[in-house]
Amino acid sequence: MRESEMKRAFWIVIIALLSMQFPAVWQTVKAAEPEMLAIPAGSGAITVRITGLRSTNGNLSVALFNAKKGFPGKYERAVRRAKIPAAGSEPLVVFGDIPYGTYAVAVQHDENANGKLDANFLGMPKEGVGSSNNPKSKFGPPSFDDASFVLDKKTMELTINLRYL
Fold this sequence. Notes:
The strands form two sheets. Strands 2, 3, 5, 6 and 7 form a five-stranded antiparallel sheet that branches. The chain has a three-stranded mixed sheet with strand order 4-1-8, with no helix packed on it. It is globular and about 55 Å long. It has helices spanning 3-18, 144-147, and strands at residues 43-51, 59-65, 80-85, 92-99, 101-110, 129-131, 149-151, 155-161. By secondary structure, it is mainly beta. 12% of the residues lie in helices and 32% in strands. The chain has a single domain, classed as Immunoglobulin-like (Sandwich), CATH 2.60.40. It comes from Chlorobaculum tepidum (strain ATCC 49652 / DSM 12025 / NBRC 103806 / TLS). InterPro entries: DUF2141. This is DUF2141 domain-containing protein.
C-alpha cells in the first residue's frame, strides 16, 4: 500500500470513529476532505468552514441540530457536536454519515476556554457566535428556520462567519 493510500485509509477510519454519536461527550473532529469519507446511501457529509475569528485563543464548539428545540444555544440537544481548537484562519469541522434532512448549525467561540459562552448583563454574547446561512440578527439569536438548510446530496460545505457583538 502506498503512503498516500495509507493516509487516506487512516483518515477514513478516524473520521468514521469521530462521527459516531456519543451522548454528553464532546467529539474532537479534525479537518478531512469530504470525498475521503465513506458515505452510505441516503446520507451525506457536512463540512463547516468557520471564518471571521477574532483570535486563535480558546476553542470552537460546533453543533448540528435537526429540530428547533434547543437551537442555537442548547448544544446537549444537538444531533452531533464537535469541539476543536480555534486554530488557523478558517478551521473546518466535518460531520459525516448524516441522514438526508433539514438541519441548522450553530458555532460558538469560547475564547477564554472556560467551557461556556460568556455574556454581558443583557444576555448578549461577549464571545463569537454564528449559525448556518449567516442570518442577519434582529433581536436575539437566529431562529432554526432562518438558519436551516436541506442536506440532500453526498457532500455539502457551509461557511459560517463568526460575529462578535
